[in-house]
């Protein structure tokens, strides 16, 4: 055969192979994802369709439809999938009040997620749990009560802060909106009116919620992520809303989500939530699995986390649901997969070319450290901090040398974790680590030679979280029944103080802790959350003055549970800084610095709040300016509500000119006449301050 004939044969073979690969329209990458999804849907049997609607979607080999896993986790780093960079928990990220940082973090997370998926694809494990491209984060529920154990997964108690942080997460995960292929699918959860308790979530009915509370508080962030960030997925919650399970609520899933907000993405159930429709432990809403699954899909739940959707075949046969309704959901799922490039030549997709060296790389480690530094909130300081590297520094407490505590929940596994003790001893080699014992006398005796005790206390993810079996006093099902420190820690702190020690409390937790006695038994308190893989280094740097603390509380720290309404009361009166009329221990937005900042008188013009911030100290520092508004004459409205903020770096002895945009959308308010959120004319007061109680007008 001549070379020319051989070349023609190869060319014809290539064309023939290409035509075989392109035999159906859904295999043509030049068509839109929707066109491809409609074509593929029309070629599937009913059994194949339902097999694609569960979190582990089955392959359809005859049509070259690959397996797909809808359930992966990336709460604060790629979770439950081997080694990954572990950032501070989301409550800590919220405490940074740095939206650009959060977007950078989740861009790094999406890099690592794509790398892991590419590796799984080469190994043929891309269909296994947590190996996919659909990530069920962010959790944008409002943290209305500090007893809720899953509050650590949220961005705090404020709707606006939650919304802007959530949008940053979505942008980082999903990638540029104009890219040919979407990087990942992000998911806003848990929709809606869900923030504990854990023990009743499978049967709880959120009813008689004031329309204002529903739209201004519970739905505010969801609406922002749908309309502004174009989030790909929404997860419906376990609980009922006005009598119907959220995953079967026409009002939530059809009227509000799709009709009012224009959501075009897909809805997934929480895991086992459809079973809650009919099983004995749940809502007693449906009489059978077949009825439950038919109701869920008819209401708009497109993917089920579970395996009950196989019963949809019986649902069609029994006339409970039409195949056209199933097609509606399936087309949404297929369209999302086409947007990811799941059916196309991997070489066409630039996200598949992210180098494996980006996984747990130095840049991501540095980013984890930056986040940990910015997340730390200095709550109390009588002049003890920052420390000097002298003798007589002792370190003790249950969280001093605990690396896994630093990871939070829904976590990945870092290559190395810097514990608090390790971080301190790196900067102060003479520091002595005392093993933790609950006996106050033994602890004081062990610290007899100490001048300063750094007590690393608080709680841990083994005590607070999702549906947990915890046997400790003050904890129930992953939630808390009291918000104070465990009694053994309070006793040790009191004994150390009585013995004349300088006591610094390094407080680890996912949420607010009641610290009334500790105002007298400590000299300084650092709230450090669960700080991720670099948390211990960040704590040490703040303690010894290498870093000036700049974190702010994204939640109210109450004095005790007596200040809280009933845990299952979802009306907002008495909840969060927006409606709490008592005196908190530490207010929302609170956080001290080693610098002293003074605000000039603010003014509002041309849609901007303008003021000066002067640093009257010898240390460079960062101040977070918070802008709240309240509406004059609105007796039922919030006392004040956050609508803008900005971190401002101010050099020692300098004054910064600050201008913070406050657009018309900041004055979107509940309108009882139209029963809707809209930009509402009227007289408003603009409050400027560094926390919710210290304000200028």
Description:
The chain is α/β, with parallel strands linked by helices and 697 residues long. Among the domains are: 368-579, Glycoside hydrolase family 3 C-terminal domain (Rossmann fold); 597-696, Immunoglobulin-like. Helix content is 29%, strand content 17%. It contains 19 helices and 27 strands. Strands 10-17-16-13-11-12 form a six-stranded mixed beta sheet, with helices on both faces. Helix 5 runs parallel beside helix 6 and helix 13 crosses helix 18 (535-543). The N and C termini lie far apart (89 Å). Residues 3-8 and 10-20 have low confidence and may be disordered.
Salient structural properties:
six-stranded mixed β-sheet; disordered N terminus; four-stranded parallel β-sheet; Rossmann fold; 697 residues; single chain; Immunoglobulin-like
Low-confidence stretches: 3-8, 10-20
| Topology, number of strands | 27
Binned strand content: 15-25%
Shape: globular
Q: What would CATH call the homologous superfamily of the domain at 368-579?
A: Glycoside hydrolase family 3 C-terminal domain
CATH topology (fold) name of the domain at 368-579:
Rossmann fold
Mean pLDDT: 95
Q: Count every helix, treating DSSP H or I runs of 4 or more residues as helices.
A: 19
**Biggest sheet details:** 6 strands, mixed
Largest sheet, order of strands side by side? Answer: 10-17-16-13-11-12
The first-level CATH class name of the domain at 368-579: Alpha Beta
């Amino acid at each position: 055969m001549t070379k020319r004939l051989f070349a023609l044969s190869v060319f014809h073979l290539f064309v023939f192979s290409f035509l075989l690969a392109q035999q159906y329209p859904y295999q043509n990458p030049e068509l839109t994802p929707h066109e491809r999804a409609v074509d593929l849907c029309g070629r599937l049997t009913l059994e194949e369709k339902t097999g694609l609607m569960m979190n582990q979607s089955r392959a359809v080999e005859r049509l070259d439809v690959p397996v797909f896993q809808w359930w992966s986790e990336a709460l604060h780093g790629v979770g439950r999938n081997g080694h990954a960079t572990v950032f501070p928990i989301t409550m800590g990220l919220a405490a940074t009040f740095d939206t650009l940082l959060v977007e950078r973090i989740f861009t790094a997370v999406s890099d690592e997620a794509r790398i892991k998926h590419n590796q799984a694809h080469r190994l043929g494990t891309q269909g296994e749990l947590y190996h996919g491209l659909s990530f069920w984060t962010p959790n944008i529920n409002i943290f209305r009560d500090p007893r809720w154990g899953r509050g650590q997964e949220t961005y705090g108690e404020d709707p606006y802060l939650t919304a802007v942080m959530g949008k940053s997460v979505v942008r980082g995960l999903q990638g540029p909106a104009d890219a040919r292929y979407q990087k990942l699918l992000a998911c806003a959860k848990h929709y809606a009116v869900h923030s504990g308790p854990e023990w009743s979530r499978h049967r709880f009915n959120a009813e008689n919620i004031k329309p204002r509370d529903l739209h201004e508080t519970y739905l505010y962030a969801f609406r922002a992520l749908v309309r502004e960030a174009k989030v790909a997925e929404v997860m419906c919650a376990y609980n009922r809303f006005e009598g119907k399970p959220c995953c079967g609520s026409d009002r939530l899933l059809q009227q509000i989500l799709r009709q009012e907000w224009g959501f075009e993405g897909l809805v997934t159930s929480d895991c086992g939530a459809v079973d809650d429709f009919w099983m004995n432990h749940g809502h007693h809403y449906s009489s059978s699995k077949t009825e439950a699954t038919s109701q869920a899909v008819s209401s708009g739940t497109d993917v089920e986390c579970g395996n009950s959707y196989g019963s949809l075949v019986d649902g069609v046969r029994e006339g409970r649901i039409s195949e056209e309704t199933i097609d509606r959901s399936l087309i949404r799922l297929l369209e999302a997969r086409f947007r990811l490039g799941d059916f196309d030549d991997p070489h066409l997709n630039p996200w598949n070319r992210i180098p494996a060296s980006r996984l747990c790389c130095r840049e991501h480690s540095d980013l984890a450290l930056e986040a940990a530094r910015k997340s730390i909130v200095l709550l109390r300081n009588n002049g003890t901090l920052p420390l000097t590297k002298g003798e007589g520094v002792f370190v003790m407490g249950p969280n001093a040398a605990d690396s896994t505590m630093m990871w939070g929940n829904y976590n990945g596994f870092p290559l190395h974790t810097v514990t608090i003790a390790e971080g301190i001893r790196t900067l102060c080699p003479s520091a002595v680590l005392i093993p933790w014992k609950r006996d106050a006398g033994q602890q004081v005796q062990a610290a007899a030679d100490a001048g300063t005790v750094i007590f690393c206390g608080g709680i841990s993810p083994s005590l607070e979280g999702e549906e947990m079996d915890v046997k400790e006093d003050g904890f129930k099902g992953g939630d808390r029944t009291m918000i104070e420190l465990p009694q053994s820690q309070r006793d040790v702190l009191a004994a150390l103080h009585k013995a004349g020690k300088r006591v610094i409390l390094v407080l680890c937790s996912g949420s607010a802790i009641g610290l009334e006695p500790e105002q007298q038994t400590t000299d300084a308190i650092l709230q450090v959350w669960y700080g991720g893989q670099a948390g211990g280094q960040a704590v040490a740097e703040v303690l010894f003055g290498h870093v000036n603390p700049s974190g702010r509380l994204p939640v109210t720290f109450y004095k005790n549970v007596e200040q809280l309404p009933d845990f299952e009361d979802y009306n907002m009166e008495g909840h969060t800084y927006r409606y709490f009329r008592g005196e908190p221990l530490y207010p929302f937005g609170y956080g001290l610095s080693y610098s002293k900042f003074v605000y000039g008188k603010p003014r509002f013009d041309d849609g901007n709040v303008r003021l000066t911030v002067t640093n009257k100290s010898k240390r460079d520092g960062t101040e977070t300016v918070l802008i709240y508004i309240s509406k004059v004459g609105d007796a039922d409205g919030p006392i004040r509500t956050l609508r803008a903020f900005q971190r401002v770096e101010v050099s020692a002895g300098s004054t910064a000119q600050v201008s913070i945009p406050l657009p018309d959308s900041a004055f979107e308010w509940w309108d009882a006449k139209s029963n809707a959120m809209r930009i509402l004319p009227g007289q408003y007061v603009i409050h400027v301050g560094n926390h919710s109680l210290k304000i200028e007008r």
